[in-house]
């Protein structure tokens, strides 16, 4: 069974098991602590612990906090299948469609949500389902930015890239120019999390598709059409494949070795350890990279412009109030606390990296809290150039299938790009129709 079919089968089975979960009798002990999950590594877990401790001190409501990273989605489906969901979950906005379609989350009444009027509308849109209703509370937003080894760039006498052509030129220089000065050919220009796991490659490549005028799905009047075989997408994929397939001096490409099996958490170490010099990623990595390679050794810039601009992926995290909880009033209290100015600021000041990247509360000043021009750059990019993935009931199948096709195209350099994207488009069109979102 392919990864896509296996994933679909798991979701379908879980959907049957949790259907009606939102209308079933409350589960669990109404006096037990609220069970809260976040999709987090241990470093960010400490930030959440502080926020939840503050909440308990203020309200007396105890929290049973569980940071989960490995197999997060699988473990959530297991809990859904056993009809024993956590009370609240903080994870990517991309989870909303799956959670809502499976009946795993409760609807949010914005009018009755304390502090909801202070949240920026664009953030609220991250919690909106395909039916126009809200099934989560936004707690953080962000936009991707381009991280560059500034010391390497300056050593090689290269300008800050503002166009695709300059970006490729810099990537080649980092690969062939011995920017670390060790006399060995062991540095690479582009750092790519190219694994198909969770659709990572499509997540990374999406910004470049948009910058070329392409897309995976294009919205038309509240519905969508498949655009993964459009001229803009074809042009973007041809350009991207050049990074994987065109060799430079030394006989290798500008991307790091093993890129097509690299997940995001493994990708970070290449930049951290001075093996790759350009990385399109989220601003949450600044705290880690400030330690290694060091704050003075890299810069954060807006993505260089492609043929159709510099649009990048803008997403974030929602807090989901899970169905079946015996504590709906306390669920709501914690969600309201998470978007308060105090909690938002505490999340932004997390060490080594924040759990609230850009605040969703309009009363929180990004510049005043961070006092860091890099975060000002990210905020500007989010306001002017960021966009989310399409608002379909479940975008994951589209992202997953796109990642698998791109991975195969970049691994087999002679493959016909138009033909393979055409096959992908046919499959995505079937998925679009099955979700009732086809134009």
Automatic annotation (TrEMBL):
<dbReference type="InterPro" id="IPR006059">
    <property type="entry name" value="SBP"/>
</dbReference>
<keyword id="KW-0449">Lipoprotein</keyword>
<keyword id="KW-0564">Palmitate</keyword>
<keyword id="KW-0732">Signal</keyword>
<feature type="signal peptide">
    <location>
        <begin position="1"/>
        <end position="24"/>
    </location>
</feature>
<keyword id="KW-0472">Membrane</keyword>
<protein>
    <submittedName>
        <fullName>Carbohydrate ABC transporter substrate-binding protein, CUT1 family</fullName>
    </submittedName>
</protein>
<dbReference type="InterPro" id="IPR050490">
    <property type="entry name" value="Bact_solute-bd_prot1"/>
</dbReference>
<keyword id="KW-1003">Cell membrane</keyword>
<dbReference type="Pfam" id="PF01547">
    <property type="entry name" value="SBP_bac_1"/>
</dbReference>
């Amino acid at each position: 069974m392919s990864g896509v079919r296996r994933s679909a089968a798991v979701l379908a089975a879980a959907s049957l098991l949790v259907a009606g979960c939102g209308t079933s009798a409350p589960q669990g002990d109404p006096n037990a602590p609220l069970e809260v999950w976040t999709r987090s590594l241990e470093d960010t877990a400490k930030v959440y612990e502080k926020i939840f401790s503050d909440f308990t001190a203020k309200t007396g409501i105890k929290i049973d906090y569980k940071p989960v990273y490995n197999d997060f989605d699988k473990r959530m489906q297991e809990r859904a299948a056993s009809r024993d969901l956590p009370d609240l979950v903080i994870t990517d906005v991309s989870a909303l469609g799956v959670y809502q379609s499976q009946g795993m989350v409760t609807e949010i009444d914005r009018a009755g949500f304390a502090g909801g009027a202070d949240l920026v509308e664009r953030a609220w849109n991250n919690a909106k389902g395909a039916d126009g209703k809200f099934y989560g509370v936004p707690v953080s937003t962000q936009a991707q930015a381009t991280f560059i080894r500034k010391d390497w760039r300056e050593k090689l006498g290269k300008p800050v890239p503002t166009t695709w052509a300059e970006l490729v030129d810099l990537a080649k220089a980092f690969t062939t120019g011995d920017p670390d000065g060790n006399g060995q050919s062991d540095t690479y220009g582009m750092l790519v999390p190219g694994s198909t796991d969770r659709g990572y490659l499509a997540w990374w490549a999406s910004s470049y598709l948009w910058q070329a005028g392409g897309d995976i799905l294009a919205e038309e009047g509240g519905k969508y059409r498949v655009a993964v075989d459009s001229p803009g997408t074809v042009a973007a994929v041809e350009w991207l494949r050049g990074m994987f397939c065109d060799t430079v001096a030394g006989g290798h490409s500008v991307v790091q070795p093993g890129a097509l099996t690299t997940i995001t958490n493994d990708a970070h170490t290449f930049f951290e350890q001075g093996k790759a010099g350009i990385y399109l990623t989220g601003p949450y990595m600044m705290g880690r990279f400030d330690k290694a390679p060091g704050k003075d050794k890299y810069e954060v810039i807006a993505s260089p412009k492609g043929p159709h601009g510099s649009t990048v992926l803008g997403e974030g995290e929602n807090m989901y109030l899970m169905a079946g909880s015996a504590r709906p009033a306390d669920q709501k209290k914690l969600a309201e606390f998470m978007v308060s100015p105090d909690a938002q600021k505490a999340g932004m000041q997390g060490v080594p990296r924040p759990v609230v990247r850009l605040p969703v509360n309009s009363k929180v000043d990004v510049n005043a809290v961070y006092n860091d021009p890099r975060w000002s750059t990210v905020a500007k990019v989010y306001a002017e150039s960021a966009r989310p993935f399409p608002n379909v009931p479940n975008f994951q199948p589209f992202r997953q299938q796109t990642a698998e096709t791109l991975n195969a195209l970049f691994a087999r350099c002679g493959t016909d790009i138009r033909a393979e994207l055409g096959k992908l488009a046919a499959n995505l069109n079937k998925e679009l129709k099955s979700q009732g979102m086809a134009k």
